């Protein structure tokens, strides 16, 4: 069954799970953007019924688009929602077959992950139903390889069309009105949330997180504009453009992933944001809390944006200029777009098409950077990609974003730690561009695994959702290894759901009594060495080491009992 969104006054009774009559095409776009405040995957196809000819009397430029243009717009901006777009003359039998096949594939969370990655066929009517780009079902449930190919091979003309559509959307859709709670009090509270190292990501809705991103990127752009007002080739996004950009980035993440979702992206961005403030690359702001161990408590002061402070933090010499700082923050925001909720090891072991394409090297990170650059930024902010990172260099923001995202591959972790040690002791002499790339890479790496450096309650929340995602991967492995007997592993007719992450440490420990095992392993193997070395190079980040040590001692003590 499917959700039906009809703009032609017609429903499809034999397919209808939920029916919404939509008054106009702009209203349809608003509805689809708002859907991603829900923190689940789309587990049913959405059938959109559009009139083949646009209404002659409408004043909306979006409404006046042709059927083919509307189809292109919808499939570009909302393909994560599993859309089947039809006009009045749809073929009943073909539509019913497509919806039935899509419904079967989408029903279960583990099945969805297998289908996205291209590692399973056990629930598919034909082996190539998802992986053949000419297949109708491939467009309804876009796999990773489908998304990669469509966006990497898109023509210049199509890109220009999509930029035009984006401009129309920004002109006609007020993204601030799409936020679930845009009251001044709530927006002010979010300013203070951004200012805390104990960033309460799991107590914030997806819409709250969108506004948090808006706050941080706006602050960085304002600083860039102040430092470099003469760059006329760089397009400064309006407030509505920037918020729309964040909505679009959010829609590129898989909301149902327990860990690698939009919330994680915002958390990594917020960690990078704190790093660059403490390192002097951005000035501190009024809502910034210098004590990293203070627990967040909701408060507001009426300010709905971050207010720059006149006071600078002590002994700060900027390590990145304003353009490089913005590049790092944007890379953090997009560093996991399209993440399927698996690991590189999984993708390689089970011959995922993307692993074959990227020769088993940084598979997911290569995918994230390609999709973020070619699908999102090339349409939403092309002038940012072309911007030089410095007046004396050929290194562009695009180059920095790619190198930063690739650095988040944990398979390359030891190599970066060794480079850090060499750089720290002056054994490795780098030119200016490579120094900027290394500093950016190290900061995003630290931010990516900063969960263990957050105060214990927040850190344990992240540990809990990560354990959920690892458990899903193990279930998927079992399904692949026993495809002939999938029903004995999991009921594919039922979806997998989770309770909301508790905000109380003791409740988390009750639900996950062995949480300390993974935390001790990760801190010992990866985090402690990286953060101790980065703090020697950048002593302003010493606080991360102090919190890691406190958390580690807690987990070690718990492991004794």
UniProtKB/TrEMBL annotation:
Residues 179-561 form the PDEase domain. Its EC number is 3.1.4.-. Coiled coil: none annotated. Its cofactor is a divalent metal cation. The keyword Amino-acid biosynthesis does not apply. PROSITE patterns: PDEASE_I_1, PDEASE_I_2. Binds 2 divalent metal cations per subunit. Site 1 may preferentially bind zinc ions, while site 2 has a preference for magnesium and/or manganese ions. The keyword Phosphoprotein does not apply. SMART domains: HDc. GO terms for biological process: signal transduction. InterPro entries: HD/PDEase_dom, PDEase_catalytic_dom, PDEase_catalytic_dom_sf, PDEase_CS. Keywords: Hydrolase, Metal-binding. CDD domains: HDc. GO terms for molecular function: 3',5'-cyclic-nucleotide phosphodiesterase activity; metal ion binding. Belongs to the cyclic nucleotide phosphodiesterase family. This is Phosphodiesterase. It comes from Candida viswanathii. The gene is PDE2_1.
């Amino acid at each position: 069954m499917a959700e039906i969104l009809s703009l032609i006054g017609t429903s499809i009774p034999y397919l209808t799970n939920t029916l919404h009559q939509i008054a106009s095409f702009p209203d349809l776009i608003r509805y689809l953007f708002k859907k991603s405040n829900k923190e689940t995957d789309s587990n049913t196809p959405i059938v959109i019924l559009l009139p083949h000819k646009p209404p002659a009397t409408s004043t909306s430029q979006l409404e006046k688009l042709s059927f083919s243009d509307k189809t292109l717009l919808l499939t570009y901006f909302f393909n994560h929602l599993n859309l089947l777009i039809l006009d009045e003359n749809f073929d009943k039998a073909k539509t019913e077959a497509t919806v039935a096949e899509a419904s079967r594939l989408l029903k279960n969370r583990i099945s969805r992950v297998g289908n996205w990655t291209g590692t399973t066929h056990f629930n598919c009517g034909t082996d190539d139903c998802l992986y053949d780009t000419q297949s109708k079902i491939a467009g309804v449930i876009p796999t990773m390889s489908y998304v990669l190919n469509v966006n990497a091979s898109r023509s210049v003309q199509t890109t220009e069309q999509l930029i035009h559509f984006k401009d129309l959307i920004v002109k006609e859709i007020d993204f601030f009105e799409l936020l679930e709670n845009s009251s001044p009090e709530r927006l002010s509270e979010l300013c203070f949330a951004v200012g805390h190292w104990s960033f309460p990501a799991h107590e914030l809705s997806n819409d709250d997180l969108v506004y948090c991103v808006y706050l941080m990127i706006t602050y960085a752009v304002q600083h860039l504009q102040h430092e470099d007002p003469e760059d006329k080739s760089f397009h400064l996004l309006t407030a509505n453009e920037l918020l729309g950009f964040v909505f679009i980035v959010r829609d590129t993440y898989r909301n149902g992933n327990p860990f690698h979702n939009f919330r994680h992206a915002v958390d990594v961005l917020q960690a990078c944001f704190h790093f660059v403030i403490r390192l002097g690359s951005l000035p501190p702001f009024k809502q910034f809390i210098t004590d990293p161990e203070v627990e967040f408590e909701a408060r507001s002061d009426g300010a709905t944006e971050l207010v720059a402070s006149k006071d600078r933090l002590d002994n700060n010499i900027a390590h990145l200029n304003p353009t490089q700082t913005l590049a790092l923050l944007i890379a953090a925001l997009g560093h996991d777009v399209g993440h399927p909720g698996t690991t590189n090891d999984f993708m390689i072991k089970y011959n995922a098409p993307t692993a074959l394409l990227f020769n088993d090297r940084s598979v997911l990170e290569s995918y994230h950077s390609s999709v973020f650059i070619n699908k999102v930024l090339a349409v939403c902010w092309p002038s940012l990609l072309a911007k030089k990172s410095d007046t004396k260099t050929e290194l562009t923001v695009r180059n920095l974003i790619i190198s930063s995202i690739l650095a988040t591959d944990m398979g390359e972790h030891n190599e970066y730690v060794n480079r850090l040690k060499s750089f720290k002791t002056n054994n490795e002499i780098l030119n200016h561009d490579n120094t900027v790339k290394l500093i950016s890479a190290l900061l995003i790496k630290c931010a990516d695994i900063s969960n263990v450096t957050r105060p214990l309650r927040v850190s344990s929340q992240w540990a809990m959702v990560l354990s959920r995602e690892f458990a899903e991967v193990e279930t998927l492995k079992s399904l692949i290894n026993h495809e002939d007997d999938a029903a004995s592993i999991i009921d594919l007719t039922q979806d997998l759901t989770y309770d909301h992450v508790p905000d109380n440490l003791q409740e988390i420990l009750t639900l996950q009594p062995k949480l300390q095992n993974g935390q001790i392993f990760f801190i010992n193997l990866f985090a402690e060495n990286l953060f101790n070395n980065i703090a020697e190079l950048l002593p302003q980040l010493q606080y991360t080491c102090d919190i890691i040590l406190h958390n580690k001692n807690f987990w070690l003590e718990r492991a004794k009992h």
